[in-house]
Automatic annotation (TrEMBL):
<feature type="repeat" description="ANK">
    <location>
        <begin position="32"/>
        <end position="60"/>
    </location>
</feature>
<feature type="repeat" description="ANK">
    <location>
        <begin position="221"/>
        <end position="249"/>
    </location>
</feature>
<feature type="repeat" description="ANK">
    <location>
        <begin position="1"/>
        <end position="28"/>
    </location>
</feature>
<dbReference type="Pfam" id="PF12796">
    <property type="entry name" value="Ank_2"/>
</dbReference>
<feature type="repeat" description="ANK">
    <location>
        <begin position="64"/>
        <end position="92"/>
    </location>
</feature>
<dbReference type="InterPro" id="IPR002110">
    <property type="entry name" value="Ankyrin_rpt"/>
</dbReference>
<feature type="repeat" description="ANK">
    <location>
        <begin position="189"/>
        <end position="217"/>
    </location>
</feature>
<feature type="repeat" description="ANK">
    <location>
        <begin position="126"/>
        <end position="154"/>
    </location>
</feature>
<protein>
    <submittedName>
        <fullName>Ankyrin repeat and KH domain-containing protein 1</fullName>
    </submittedName>
</protein>
<keyword id="KW-0677">Repeat</keyword>
<keyword id="KW-0040">ANK repeat</keyword>
<dbReference type="InterPro" id="IPR036770">
    <property type="entry name" value="Ankyrin_rpt-contain_sf"/>
</dbReference>
């Protein structure tokens, strides 16, 4: 059951919250370890958040994923995130999800920027790195923001994620990753990036990879880029690869 303070907080009754606090209500006592502060954050009552903080609510207290900051991040409450940060919240506190990863999963670019400005660990892995989450979501603005703030591309992008970008023809993010040092000839599953792009008919991406030094004849288990394009009937790509030195007789051992 709710405490009187939690009940007032949950329903947004600011005057009652103030009255209970004046009578020494325990500002950190909640239900099942979910504090009044976490509860009010979820319901987006900024005035009550401020009131609880003024009365020494523990800004970091929570259970598992339910901390005040995690709740604010997941619900996209930017003003409350800013308020919590101003009051000393630990930006790297989290159990399964880091706060930054939670922001990425919900596509809140402003919140990601706030976290970075307040010392969030850009390479923390719980269980994914922020960069991996952003790449998986295809959000180029957040990918760029993380890379600009020191995200490690080798920790942040797995073979499967890079392969997915190539297979889906996500040219813009691939270009950005290449600018920050992604391996253009990295083996991704049964293909190289160039073979995967050729197989799926992504002409612009093939051009980009070739421009960045992709080996036009390198294959892995199945096809060279040329045989992948030929097998799937991509005439323009066959022509493009031949123009860039593809060996017309080469196969994969």
């Amino acid at each position: 059951e709710d405490t009187p303070l939690t009940a007032a907080v949950k329903n947004g009754h600011t005057d009652i919250v103030r009255l209970l606090l004046e009578k020494a209500a325990n500002v950190n006592k909640g239900v099942r370890e979910v504090t009044p502060l976490t509860t009010v954050v979820k319901n987006n009552h900024t005035d009550i958040v401020r009131l609880l903080l003024e009365n020494r609510a523990d800004v970091n207290k929570g259970v598992r994923e339910d901390t005040p900051l995690t709740a604010a991040v997941k619900n996209g409450h930017t003003d409350i995130v800013r308020l919590l940060l101003e009051n000393g919240v630990d930006v790297n506190k989290g159990v399964r999800d880091t706060l930054l990863t939670a922001a990425l999963q919900n596509d809140h670019t402003k919140i990601v920027r706030l976290h970075l400005e307040n010392g969030a660990d850009v390479n923390k892995r719980v269980p994914d790195t922020p960069l991996r989450a952003a790449v998986r979501n295809g959000n180029i603005d957040i990918v760029r923001l993380l890379l600009e703030n020191g995200a490690d591309i080798n920790k942040g992008v797995s073979d499967s994620e890079f392969s997915g970008l190539v297979m889906n023809g996500n040219t813009d993010i691939v270009r950005l990753l290449l600018e920050y040092g992604a391996d253009v000839n990295k083996e991704v599953g049964e293909d190289t990036p160039l073979s995967a792009a050729a197989k799926n008919g992504h002409t612009d991406l093939v051009r980009l990879l070739l421009k960045n030094g992709a080996d036009v004849n390198k294959g892995v288990q199945e096809d060279t880029p040329l045989s992948a394009a030929a097998k799937n009937g991509h005439t323009d790509l066959v022509r493009l690869l031949l123009q860039n030195g593809a060996d017309v007789n080469k196969g994969v051992q």
